[in-house]
C-alpha cells in the first residue's frame, strides 16, 4: 500500500470513527431520554445532571461546553419524549386543540435549541492574514455606498470615511449609488472626489441598485457599506488578506457595530450594559457559522469577489433579504465565505421602536421568503452543515406564534379549565424544570458574553406579534409586501408612550390579569388537592408572563432623543489654541460630527462663547478645527461645538476619529458575562417601569379625555 493510499485510508477511517461516535452518542441520548421514571427518580436524575453541569461549567475548555450541550439535550429530549408519549391523552376537544398548539410551540423551541447548539459548537474565531508586501499584487476594489432618502449629513460622513481607506489610490474607486437622484448629493460627491452613480428607476431597491452599479464598474472586488456605516481606515487591509490568499473565497463579512443606542437600549436604559440582539449574531453566531463555511453576507461591512457575484447573477432580487439569499447562491456554487469578528465599521441604530419593528418585519419576511422559494434544506450544492446553519437562521424568525402561545398557554386552565398537558403539576415540574434549567445554564455558558437570557425574552416578545403575520404570508405567497428603507439619523422630539405598538401587548396583559384574578378566586374558594397544585403552577407561569409583558410595555415608552450627532467615547491627545495665542494641552472625552468634549491637562477655565482652534493629531499629522466653547463644566471638561468646517477639515475630523482603526474594537464586547440573577433583577425593574409608564399614560389620557368632554359641554 502506497503513502497516498494510507492517507486516504486514514481520512476515511477518521470519518467513519466520527460517524460512529455520532451514532453512539445519539443512541445513548435516545436511550436515556426514553427510560420511564417516576417523579422521585426523575428529580434525582435531574439533580445529578444539574450538579454535574455546575461542576463542569467552571472549566474554560471547549470540550466542557460540548459536554454541557450534551447534558442539556439529554434533559430536553427527555422532556419532549415524555410530552409526546405520556401527556397527550385526548380529553375534551378544547384540551386537544389548545394542548396540540402548546406541543407544536415546544417542538419548535426544541428544534431551534438543537440546531443552535450545532451552529455554535466550535466557533472559529478567525484572525486576519497579512497582504503581500508588494502592493502591486494587491487587487482593485470598488467601494459601493447605496443610498435612497437618508439625510445628506449621514451619507457624507460615510463617504469621507471611505475616502481615507488605506489602499493604493490607483486600485480604489468609491461609488455613491443614489436611488434618490439628489442634486445636492451629486455635488458633494464631485467635491469629495468620489464617483456618483444613479439609474432611471428604483427596481428591486438596494439589490437592483448594486446590480446596476456592477454593470458600470470593473474592480476585482466590491466592498459594500450602508450609507450610515462608516468604515475604519484599516477595513480593507484587515478584510482582504483572506480573499487574496484563497481564490475560492467569495465573501468576507465583518460585524455591524452601532455606536448609537437602539430603541430597546434607549427606552430601557441598557445601552452599554446589556448586549443587544445584534451582538449575539455578530459576536457568536457568525463566528459559529464560519466554522461550517456558512457565514452569511449581511448587506454591509463586507467584501465580495466580483467574479462569483456576477456568476450567480448579481445580488439576489427575489426576496427582501437579498444579502442572505445571495450568500446561499454563492455557497451553492461551491464558493466559500469567511467572518472576521473584528468591528471595522460603525453605523447608526434605528431611532424609534416603530422603525426598529419595521426593519425586523422586513428581515423576518425576507427569511420566510427564502425558506419558501429557495429552501436551504433542499437547495443543491450546500453541505449538510450549511443547510443546518441557514435553516436555523430562517426558523428563528418564525418565533412569533410560539411566543404568543407561551404567553397565553396557562390561561387555558385558569379561564376555561382546559388541561393542555395531561399530567400532574408535580410531574410537569419534574420534567419541564430540568429542561428549562439545563438549557438556561448551558446558554449562560455559551452565550453569556453575547446575550442576556431574560432580556432576550423581552426583545422577542416585543417583536412576536409583528413578525407573525408577515412570516406566515411570506410562506403562503412570497411575492407579497415590498422593500422598505430603514430610517436612520432621525430624532425623537419628545418622550411619549407608543400606544400603537403597545396595543397587542396591552391586550395580552389584560388577558393575563384576568387569568390571574380567576386563578386566585379559584384558590380562595378551594378545590381538590391536584387542582390546587395545577393552579399554583399556572399562576406562577402567568406571573412570569406578566413580568415579561411589563418589560415589553416599557420598551414602548419612547424616550426623547434630540441629538443630531451622537457622541462617541474617545481618549486622545489634543491641543486647544486660544484667541490670545495660548495653547492648552488637553485630551478628548468624546466626539461627534458636530462637537467634542475635552478635559485640559491642567485647570484652565474658559467662558462660553470663546472662539478656539482644536488641533487633533493622527498618524504623524495634525490639523486645527475651528470651534466655540459652549460649556465649561470644570472637572467634567469643556463642551465645544465645531464652527462650519470646509471639506478637508471635515475629512480630517472623520479620519482622526470615526475612521480610526482601533476605535470600534475598543468599544466591542465590553459587557459583563450574563448571570441569571442579574438578568432577572434588570427585567423586574424594567417591568415595574413599564407598569408605571402605563399607569401614567392611562391617567394622562383620562385627564385629557375628561377635559375634552368638559370643553365639548361648554361649546
Q: Whole-number average pLDDT?
A: 88
Alpha-carbon distance between the two ends: 104 Å
Biggest sheet: strands, sense, closure?
Answer: 7 strands, mixed
% residues in beta strands: 5-15%
Radius of gyration: 28 Å
Function: Catalytic subunit of cellulose synthase. It polymerizes uridine 5'-diphosphate glucose to cellulose.
Transmembrane segments: 12-33, 39-56, 63-84, 96-118, 404-433, 463-485, 505-525, 537-557
Keywords: c-di-GMP, Cell inner membrane, Cell membrane, Cellulose biosynthesis, Glycosyltransferase, Membrane, Transferase, Transmembrane, Transmembrane helix
GO biological process, one term: UDP-alpha-D-glucose metabolic process
Describe the structure in your own words.
- The chain is an alpha+beta fold and 715 residues long.
- It has three domains: 17-119 and 399-487 and 496-510, no CATH class; 138-349, Spore Coat Polysaccharide Biosynthesis Protein SpsA, Chain A, CATH 3.90.550.10; 568-663, Beta Barrel (Thrombin, subunit H).
- Helix content is 54%, strand content 13%.
- It contains 23 helices and 19 strands.
- The strands form four sheets. It has a seven-stranded mixed beta sheet, with helices on both faces.
- Strand 14 and strand 15 form a beta hairpin.
- The chain is globular, with a radius of gyration of 28 Å.
- The chain starts with a helix and ends with a helix.
- Residues 3-11 and 706-715 have low confidence and may be disordered.
- Residues 561-658 form the PilZ domain.
- It is found in: Cell inner membrane.
- Residues 143-312 form the Glycosyltransferase 2-like domain.
- Pathway: Glycan metabolism; bacterial cellulose biosynthesis.
- Belongs to the glycosyltransferase 2 family.
Amino acid at each position: 500500500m502506497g503513502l497516498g493510499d494510507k492517507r486516504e485510508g486514514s481520512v476515511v477511517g477518521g470519518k467513519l470513527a466520527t460517524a460512529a461516535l455520532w451514532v453512539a452518542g445519539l443512541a445513548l441520548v435516545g436511550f436515556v431520554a426514553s427510560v420511564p421514571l417516576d417523579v422521585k427518580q426523575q428529580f434525582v436524575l435531574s439533580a445529578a445532571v444539574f450538579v454535574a453541569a455546575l461542576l463542569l461549567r467552571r472549566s474554560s475548555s471547549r470540550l466542557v461546553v460540548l459536554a454541557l450541550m450534551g447534558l442539556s439535550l439529554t434533559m430536553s429530549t427527555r422532556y419532549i419524549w415524555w410530552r409526546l408519549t405520556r401527556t397527550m391523552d385526548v380529553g375534551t376537544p378544547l384540551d386537544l386543540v389548545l394542548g396540540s398548539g402548546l406541543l407544536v410551540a415546544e417542538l419548535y423551541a426544541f428544534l431551534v435549541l438543537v440546531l443552535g447548539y450545532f451552529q455554535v459548537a466550535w466557533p472559529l474565531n478567525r484572525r486576519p492574514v497579512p497582504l503581500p508586501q508588494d502592493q502591486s499584487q494587491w487587487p482593485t476594489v470598488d467601494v459601493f455606498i447605496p443610498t435612497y432618502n437618508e439625510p445628506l449629513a449621514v451619507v457624507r460622513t460615510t463617504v469621507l470615511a471611505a475616502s481615507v481607506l488605506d489602499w493604493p489610490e490607483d486600485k480604489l474607486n468609491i461609488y455613491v449609488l443614489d436611488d434618490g437622484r439628489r442634486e445636492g448629493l451629486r455635488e458633494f460627491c464631485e467635491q469629495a472626489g468620489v464617483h456618483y452613480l444613479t439609474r432611471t428607476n428604483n427596481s428591486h431597491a438596494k439589490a437592483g441598485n448594486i446590480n446596476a452599479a456592477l454593470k458600470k464598474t470593473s474592480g476585482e472586488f466590491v466592498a459594500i457599506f450602508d450609507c450610515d456605516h462608516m468604515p475604519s481606515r484599516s477595513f480593507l487591509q484587515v478584510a482582504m488578506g483572506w480573499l487574496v490568499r484563497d481564490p475560492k473565497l467569495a465573501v468576507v463579512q465583518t460585524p455591524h457595530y452601532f455606536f448609537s443606542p437602539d430603541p430597546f437600549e434607549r427606552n430601557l436604559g441598557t445601552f452599554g450594559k446589556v448586549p443587544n440582539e445584534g451582538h449575539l449574531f455578530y459576536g457568536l453566531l457568525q463566528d459559529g457559522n464560519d466554522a461550517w463555511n456558512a457565514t452569511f453576507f449581511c448587506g454591509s461591512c463586507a467584501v465580495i469577489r466580483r467574479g462569483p457575484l456576477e456568476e450567480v447573477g448579481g445580488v439576489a432580487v427575489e426576496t427582501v433579504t437579498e444579502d442572505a439569499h445571495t450568500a446561499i447562491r454563492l455557497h451553492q456554487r461551491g464558493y466559500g465565505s469567511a467572518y472576521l469578528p473584528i468591528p471595522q465599521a460603525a453605523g447608526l441604530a434605528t431611532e424609534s421602536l416603530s422603525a426598529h419593528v419595521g426593519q425586523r418585519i422586513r428581515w423576518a419576511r425576507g427569511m420566510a421568503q427564502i425558506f419558501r422559494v429557495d429552501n436551504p434544506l433542499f437547495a443543491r450544492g450546500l453541505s449538510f452543515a450549511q443547510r443546518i446553519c441557514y435553516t436555523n437562521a430562517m426558523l428563528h424568525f418564525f418565533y412569533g406564534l410560539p411566543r404568543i402561545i407561551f404567553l397565553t398557554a396557562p390561561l387555558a386552565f385558569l379561564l376555561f379549565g382546559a388541561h393542555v398537558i395531561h399530567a400532574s403539576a408535580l410531574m410537569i415540574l419534574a420534567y419541564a424544570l430540568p429542561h428549562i434549567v439545563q438549557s438556561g445554564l448551558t446558554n449562560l455558558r455559551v452565550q453569556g458574553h453575547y446575550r442576556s437570557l431574560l432580556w432576550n425574552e423581552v426583545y422577542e416578545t416585543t417583536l412576536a406579534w409583528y413578525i407573525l403575520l408577515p412570516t406566515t404570508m411570506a410562506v403562503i405567497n412570497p411575492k407579497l409586501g415590498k422593500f422598505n428603507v430603514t430610517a436612520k439619523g432621525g430624532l425623537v422630539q419628545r418622550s411619549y408612550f407608543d400606544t400603537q405598538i403597545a396595543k397587542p401587548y396591552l391586550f395580552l396583559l389584560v388577558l393575563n390579569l384576568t387569568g390571574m384574578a380567576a386563578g386566585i378566586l379559584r384558590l380562595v374558594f378551594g378545590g381538590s388537592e391536584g387542582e390546587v397544585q395545577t393552579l399554583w403552577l399556572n399562576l406562577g407561569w402567568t406571573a412570569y408572563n406578566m413580568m415579561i409583558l411589563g418589560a415589553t410595555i416599557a420598551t414602548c415608552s419612547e424616550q426623547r432623543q434630540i441629538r443630531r450627532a451622537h457622541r462617541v467615547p474617545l481618549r486622545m491627545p489634543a491641543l486647544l489654541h486660544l484667541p490670545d495665542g495660548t495653547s492648552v494641552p488637553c485630551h478628548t472625552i468624546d466626539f461627534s460630527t458636530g462637537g467634542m468634549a475635552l478635559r485640559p491637562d491642567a485647570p484652565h477655565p474658559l467662558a462660553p462663547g470663546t472662539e478656539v482652534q482644536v488641533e487633533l493629531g493622527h498618524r504623524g499629522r495634525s490639523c486645527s478645527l475651528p470651534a466655540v466653547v459652549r460649556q465649561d463644566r470644570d472637572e467634567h471638561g469643556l463642551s465645544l461645538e465645531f464652527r462650519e468646517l470646509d471639506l478637508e477639515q471635515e475629512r480630517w475630523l472623520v479620519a482622526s476619529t470615526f475612521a480610526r482603526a482601533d476605535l470600534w474594537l475598543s468599544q466591542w464586547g465590553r459587557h459583563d458575562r450574563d448571570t441569571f440573577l442579574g438578568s432577572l433583577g434588570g427585567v423586574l425593574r424594567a417591568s415595574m417601569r413599564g407598569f408605571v409608564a402605563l399607569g401614567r399614560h392611562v391617567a394622562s389620557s383620562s385627564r385629557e379625555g375628561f377635559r375634552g368632554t368638559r370643553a365639548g359641554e361648554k361649546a
